[in-house]
Amino acid sequence: MGLTLAEKLLARHAGLPSTRAGDLVVANVSFAMVHDARAPNAIRMVEKMGAKSLPFANKTAWVLDHFSPPPTVEAAQGHTAMRKFADEHGSVLYDIGDGICHQVMPEGGHLTCGDLIVGTDTHSVTYGAFNAFGTGIEGTDVSAVMATGKVWLRVPESVRVTLKGHLQPGVWAKDVTLHMLGKFGAEGLNYRAIEYVGSAVQAMEIDDRMTLCNHAAELGAKAALLEADEKTFAWLKAHGAKTPAPLSADADAHYADHFEIDASQLAPQVARKHSVDDIVSAHEVVSQKINFALIGTCTNGRLDDIRQAAAVLKGKRVAKGVRMIITPASRQIYLAAAREGLIEALTEAGASVEAAGCGTCVGITNHLIPGDREVVISSANRNFQGRLGNHDADIWLGSAATVAASALTGYITDPRTVAGGQWEASHA
Asked: Which of the listed residues 17, 30, 266, 401 has the most CB atoms within 10 Å of its CB?
């Protein structure tokens, strides 16, 4: 019997001919990441361990993104400690405004096909878009990785999801992931590795593929994995990654389950307030008024997302009474959007652009908080009560296109119904 992609990847890194779901392995890590919300634990544990050297520290990136900019003196002191640690141990440092961890890791060329990447954030599953096993660990675990270069893992069961057909114009990977959440529920695929395959995946650009894998965290997945192709190789080469060593699942691999979704039948999806898995089609809730529109985060703050927003809003104005915030996922994305004229178009439409970071999404920098009983439409990955910093605000989720269309009308809006929403069939 053959192996799934997750089983093959972990066997490679454990130095074993094969692994099976349920096996415990000690695997060699390719690269590690720790962000500022978990860095204090990592530094404290390094001190407790008393390790004489940290040979893997130079393959670890420290990212100042969650408390960015720092809202308190304590957070600023934490950043100072991270800079000092990275300097002393030869780690890579991404400072305030450089970008969100899940964007700067691939942008910085720190991963390639076939790698095992660990990071102190559940959305480290994003790296599966590049045929890498990416998964989240705690800050204390990263200290052990820096000392040994290894991590222990239980090999997950895998589910194979075939996205057949092609997404229709105006429908994006975000709509697929929201549909998945409606189908399986939040944490409905706990500790599973999701292998996404099919013609709709092959047609997606890299930005959309990253969104597809990123949202696997809300499904509870241990990893989300795509096969590599020429788009993958070209993107990695353009970002200075190592030579890819891709892997594919065997044709006779054993899966815990198989699912098939006809992508061509999907409409823009929306998650209703407070629940990532309370999913309806956008056209079912078009009477819902909004006050705040947010495009950004590690899920949908990439260049294609900003392009979607600009396509809707160029030459128009955000609806009266609605404020719109754009948070590019990285400095590189901000610059690319500026060079394309997207930032100018969105700014003229009434949107404001903030520096790259996680603070607004998580609600810990406290500088763009919605008011009580205000309604937010967001392209982020989570809408739990209290996200964005106010327990009395209602947060709905949608694609960047849906957020932009809603900002234009002042109500949740199917992006296919607004001018500019007649998208080119880029998925075909």
From this structure: 401
User: What is the per-residue pLDDT across 180-239, written as a single tens digit (0 to 9) for each?
Assistant: 999 999 999 999 999 999 999 999 999 999 999 999 999 999 999 999 999 999 999 999
As a whole number of angstroms, the distance between CA 260 and CA 55 comes to 44
CA–CA separation, 59 and 91 (whole Å): 7
**Beta bridge partner(s), residue 330:** 99
Is the whole model's pTM more than 0.85, yes or no?
yes
C-alpha–C-alpha distance, residues 122 and 215, integer Å: 10
Quickly list DSSP for 338-395: HHTTHHHHHHHTTEEE--S-SHHHHT-S-SSPPPTT-EEEE-SS---TTGGG-TTSEE
Q: How far is CA 400 from CA 211, 226, 300, 313, 350, in A?
A: 11, 22, 7, 12, 16
Three-class DSSP category at 184 = helix
Point out which residues pair with 281 in neighbouring strands. 269
CB 191 within 8 A of CB 222: yes
Which neighbouring-strand residues pair with 326?
A: 295, 353
The two three-digit tokens of residue 116, written as one number: 């095992």
